[in-house]
Specification:
With about 325 residues, this protein is of the alpha+beta class. It has helices spanning about 10-20, 30-40, 75-80, 100-105, 140-165, 175-190, 205-215, 215-230, 255-275, 300-315, and strands at about 45-50, 55-65, 70, 85-90, 110-120, 125-135, 195-205, 240-245, 245-250, 285-290. Helix 8 crosses helix 9. It is elongated and about 65 Å long.
Length: about 325
């Protein structure tokens, strides 16, 4: 078995994928309609839309197969993103790359695979629309054109997601929106020689809320956290749900001491919310605060430092995930 190699632009490709917001969206009915259409059009048992992340293939839609994410080193889609042309494998057992791949030899083997690379608006190849059969089969040039047409429709949906800067669930800025405003704020603060401080926040035991009480309660916790942020901080502060249960707060014209005081007040407001809330779980969070160093930092290093500080608090408090 040959594991897929890494594209030459892998760092930029992964950055574009994570900036796109596609990894945060869990359910998308249009993707499901397109995989249903692909399955019916080609008469195959499986059709999927997948994103190739650093270590796993993230399944965005699967018709006829389990939607569980797959290890990238076993994936067919990891090979698809290496080229602009579609990857067509009429019989996996006749292809040295896949003949001994567990996916090609298990109880429901992948014997035929056709994947069309999917791109973001900036051209980054981030995944594939693929169809699978448990029997070998041929794939004509007309079939390739039809698969390309469906892939183009998927890319239209990708473009719509990339253009969005607001998180649907919480109403705060999403990752893309935050990066847009943070980049502007850094430039403005540098020109004016003003302080700029970032707070990075992660909900405590969020996975336990989802596991024990259901995703609806998890969504309630996220919306409650967003509501506390909006009611606690100034309109000039940039508030974002960065992804999952991570939130970012950008304090304009505030030094680290001022932001620390603001976060302490947010903690007090969360305690008040917990006193009046009627849920079998409490809203709590860990956080880190760091002021931007105009001589040393860029946005990426600033975010990483804030994340490390947040994680340090989480470890000290033993609050876990």
């Amino acid at each position: 078995m040959k594991s897929p190699s890494l594209p030459q632009n892998e760092t930029a490709r992964l950055s574009a994928l994570r900036e796109s917001g596609l990894l945060e969206i869990e359910n998308h009915p249009t993707y499901d309609r397109l995989t249903r259409l692909a399955k019916r059009l080609f008469g195959v048992p499986v059709a999927m839309i997948n994103l190739v992340d650093e270590h796993v293939v993230v399944v965005k839609s699967a018709n006829g197969a389990d939607a569980t994410n797959l290890p990238r080193n076993l994936s067919f889609c990891g090979h698809t993103v290496l080229n602009e042309a579609p990857l067509v494998v009429p019989d996996t057992l006749d292809d040295a790359r896949f003949a001994d791949n567990p996916l090609a030899t298990d109880d429901d083997p992948v014997r035929f695979y056709a994947g069309y690379p999917l791109h973001l608006p900036n051209g980054a190849t981030v995944g594939s629309l693929c169809i699978i059969d448990h029997q070998p089969r041929q794939f004509s040039p007309a079939d390739v054109e039809a698969l390309a047409d469906l892939a183009a429709l998927v890319e239209v949906e990708f473009a719509a997601t990339c253009a969005t800067i607001v998180d649907d669930l919480t109403g705060l800025y999403n990752r893309r929106g935050f990066h847009h405003f943070a980049t502007y704020a850094i430039g403005a603060a540098r020109r004016r020689a003003e302080p700029l401080t970032l707070a990075w926040l992660d909900l405590d035991r969020f996975k336990q809320i989802n596991a024990r009480h259901g995703r609806a309660d998890g969504d309630t916790a996220l919306k409650a956290m967003a509501g506390l942020l909006s009611s606690t901080f100034r309109e000039a502060d940039v508030l974002a749900r960065y992804g999952g249960d991570e939130f970012a707060i950008l304090f304009a014209s505030s030094d680290e001491k001022g932001a620390w005081i603001a976060m302490q007040y947010l903690t007090e407001q969360a305690a008040v919310w917990n006193e009046h809330a009627e849920y079998p779980w409490a809203l709590s969070f860990s956080w880190g605060v760091i002021e931007f160093n105009h001589d040393r930092d860029d946005l990426e290093s600033w975010l990483k430092t804030a994340d490390r500080m947040m994680y340090s608090m989480k470890q000290q408090r033993g609050t876990g995930c």
